[in-house]
Design brief:
Distance between the termini: 24 Å
Keywords: Membrane, Transmembrane, Transmembrane helix
Strand content: under 5%
Radius of gyration: 26 Å
Number of strands: 0
Shape: globular
Order of helices and strands: HHHHHHHHHHHHHHHHHHHHHHHHHHH
Structural class: mainly alpha
Number of domains: 2
Helix content: over 70%
Length: about 550
C-alpha cells in the first residue's frame, strides 16, 4: 500500500523538480518516513499481538471513514440541484480536511525531532518542505479514499460513467487546495513570528480555528432552513460563489453544461488556479529558509524572573496544600496543574471544549424552537438541565488528556519513588483538573442559568455539580487508571476504552433522567442529593486508594 501511495505522490515529479526539489532525495525521505510509520515500539514478547492490532486498527479506520462517507453523501441524495449538492458535499470534505490539517497534521510539518539528522545534510528547503507535505498527503489519501467511495459510487450510478471518471479530478484539486493553503499559512506565520514564539502562536491559532470550524459546521445550516432541503438551489444562495468548495463544484459544468449559475465556467477555472497558486507560492516564496526557521523552533527564550510570576506560582501551591492532606496528592495536584499550562497538545485538545459546549447548546436550542419566544422555550423545557450535564464534556476532555504525554517514558519516576498508594497521586491530579478547568466553567454557566431561571435553579446546580463529579470519577474507575502524563497518545483510542466511555455516558444519561424526575417530584431532589453525596464519597475512596496492580503503564497496553 505504501509503495502505491508513494508512486502516486511522486507522479508530478517534474513539477517538483521545476520548483527546486531534489527528486531522489525527496523520494528517499518519503520512503524512510513511511517505513518509520510502520515501526512501532514493541514490548517484550508482544510483537505479534501489536502487529495484529495495528492491522486491525488500519481496517477500523478505513471502516469509520467509509461510514463518514455515507453521512457526507446525504446532500448528493437529498438535493436535486447537482452543483449545489456538490457544493455542500465539498464543503463537508474541506471542513474535515482543514480540521485534520489544523489539529492533527500540523505537527508533521513543524516536527523538529529529525533536525539533527537532516539539517546538516545537503538537503535544500524545497525538498525538506515537500517531503513533509507529501507525507501528510499520503495520510490524507488513506482517509479520503474510503470516505469518498460512497459519493463516487452514487454519482456514477445517478449520472453515468462520465461522472465516475471525472469524480477524481475535483477531489485531488480539493486535497491540494486544503493542503497547501493551510501549510502555506503556517510557513508565512513562521516567517513573521519569532521561532521561539511560533509554536505558542500557532497553538492558539489552532484552538481558535477549530472552534470556528465547529461553530460553522453546526450553526451555518441554521441559516439555510428557510427552504426545504430538496428544493434548495444555488440561485437562492448566490453568495456561495465566493467559497472554494463552489469553485470545485463548478468543475462539473464541464461535463454537464448548464447546471451552474452564471459565471460558473470562470469560477471553475479558479478551482485549478487557486491550488496551483498555493503550491507555487508556498514552495517558491515561503519554503526557502524553511530549514533555518525549523532549527530555531527549539530555541529557548530566557527571561529574567518576575515577582508577578512567582506570586502566581504561589497560588497553586497554596491551593495544593489546602485541598490535599498528604504529600503524594499534593505532588499529583501540582504536577497536573503545571503541565497542563505548559503542554501545547493538552491545550489543543481541551481548550476548544469550553466553546463546543455552548455552541452545541445553541444548536440544540434552535433545532427545537417553536413559534414562541426562545427564552420561554428554554424555561418551559428545562434546558438548564441539558446545559448542566453537557458541561461534563469539558471535565471528560481534561481527564482523558491529563494522562497523555509525548514524553511518557519519563513516568518511570513514579515507580522509582517510595509511593505505596499511587491513587493519591491520581486523586491530586483529579482535584487539579476539577478546580482549574471544570469549576470555573461551571461557575460561568451557573451565572447564565441563574440569570434566566432564577434562584430556584440553585438546587439543580448543586445536584448537577455532584452528579457530574460523580460521573467523572466513575469514568476514571471504568477506564484505565493511569498516572498523570504516563501514557502515549495513540493508545488512548483503543476499542476497549471507547466502549467503557460509551458505558459511562449511559450512566450520565441516567443521572440526567433522575434529575429531571426530581423536578417533577420535589421530594426526590433532596433524596438524590444525599444518595449522590454518598456515592461520591464511596467512589472517591475507591479511586484514591488504587494500588499499583490497578494502575496501568503505557507499556502494559502495547
Amino acid at each position: 500500500m505504501n509503495k502505491l501511495l508513494l508512486k502516486l505522490a511522486m507522479l508530478p515529479s517534474g513539477v517538483y523538480k521545476n520548483m527546486g526539489a531534489d527528486i531522489p532525495q525527496l523520494e528517499a525521505l518519503l520512503q524512510v518516513k513511511l517505513m518509520q510509520d510502520d515501526r512501532k515500539p514493541l514490548a517484550f514478547g508482544r510483537a505479534r499481538r501489536q502487529k495484529k492490532e495495528q492491522k486491525n486498527s488500519i481496517w477500523l479506520n478505513a471502516f469509520l471513514s467509509l461510514v463518514t462517507g455515507f453521512v457526507y453523501m446525504m446532500p448528493l441524495v437529498s438535493m436535486k440541484d447537482l452543483v449545489f449538492s456538490l457544493w455542500a458535499y465539498y464543503s463537508l470534505f474541506l471542513f474535515m480536511l482543514s480540521f485534520l490539517l489544523i489539529t492533527d497534521f500540523s505537527n508533521v510539518l513543524i516536527d523538529t525531532r529529525d533536525k539533527t539528522v537532516l539539517l546538516p545534510r545537503p538537503i535544500n528547503d524545497q525538498t525538506l518542505f515537500l517531503s513533509r507535505v507529501l507525507h501528510i498527503f499520503i495520510y490524507l489519501f488513506r482517509i479520503l479514499v474510503p470516505m469518498s467511495l460512497p459519493g463516487w459510487v452514487y454519482l456514477s450510478i445517478a449520472y453515468g460513467w462520465p461522472a465516475g471518471l471525472f469524480f477524481v479530478v475535483p477531489l485531488l484539486l480539493m486535497v491540494f487546495m486544503a493542503l497547501f493553503a493551510v501549510n502555506g499559512f503556517y510557513l508565512l506565520l513562521l516567517k513573521v513570528a519569532k521561532p521561539e514564539r511560533f509554536k505558542e502562536v500557532i497553538n492558539y491559532f489552532q484552538i481558535g480555528v477549530s472552534i470556528l470550524l465547529f461553530a460553522s459546521y453546526y450553526l451555518l445550516p441554521q441559516v439555510m432552513k428557510s427552504a426545504a432541503i430538496t428544493g434548495m438551489t444555488q440561485e437562492h444562495y448566490s453568495w456561495i460563489r465566493y467559497f472554494p468548495s463552489y469553485w470545485l463544484a463548478s468543475c462539473w459544468t464541464w461535463i454537464f453544461p448548464g447546471t451552474g449559475m452564471a459565471g460558473s465556467t470562470w469560477l471553475s477555472i479558479l478551482a485549478i488556479v487557486f491550488p496551483a497558486f498555493c503550491i507555487y507560492a508556498t514552495v517558491k516564496w515561503l519554503a526557502p529558509q524553511f530549514a533555518r526557521n525549523l532549527g530555531g523552533l527549539d530555541a529557548v527564550e530566557v527571561h529574567a524572573a518576575k515577582v508577578k510570576r512567582q506570586r502566581r506560582e504561589g497560588f497553586y501551591k497554596k491551593l495544593a496544600y489546602l485541598v490535599n492532606k498528604n504529600d503524594e496528592a499534593r505532588a499529583g495536584f501540582m504536577l497536573a496543574w503545571l503541565q497542563t499550562s505548559r503542554s501545547r497538545s493538552f491545550k489543543m485538545k481541551v481548550y476548544p471544549s469550553f466553546a463546543y459546549v455552548p455552541i452545541y447548546f445553541v444548536y440544540l436550542l434552535f433545532n427545537s424552537r417553536s413559534e414562541t419566544n426562545v427564552l420561554q422555550v428554554m424555561v418551559d423545557r428545562k434546558f438548564h438541565l441539558l446545559l448542566i450535564y453537557m458541561s461534563s464534556f469539558t471535565m471528560i476532555q481534561a481527564l482523558n488528556y491529563v494522562s497523555i504525554s509525548d514524553q511518557y517514558k519519563a513516568s518511570w519516576i513514579y515507580r522509582a519513588l517510595p509511593v505505596e498508594t499511587p491513587g493519591r497521586i491520581m486523586g491530586g491530579a483529579f482535584k487539579a483538573m476539577w478546580l482549574k478547568f471544570y469549576l470555573p466553567f461551571f461557575v460561568a454557566i451557573s451565572i447564565f442559568i441563574l440569570a434566566i431561571w432564577g434562584v430556584p435553579a440553585i438546587s439543580d446546580l448543586l445536584l448537577g455539580l455532584m452528579n457530574v463529579t460523580l460521573f467523572s470519577l466513575i469514568l476514571m474507575l471504568m477506564g484505565s487508571r493511569t498516572l498523570p502524563f504516563s501514557t502515549v497518545e495513540q493508545l488512548s483510542n483503543s476499542a476497549g476504552r471507547t466502549l467503557r466511555v460509551f458505558g459511562a455516558f449511559a450512566i450520565i444519561g441516567l443521572f440526567g433522567l433522575g434529575h429531571y424526575l426530581a423536578i417533577k417530584f420535589w421530594m426526590l431532589k433532596p433524596l438524590f442529593m444525599i444518595l449522590s453525596g454518598i456515592a461520591l464519597w464511596l467512589v472517591w475512596d475507591s479511586y484514591s486508594k488504587s494500588n499499583w496492580n490497578a494502575v496501568k503503564r503505557a507499556e502494559d497496553e502495547l
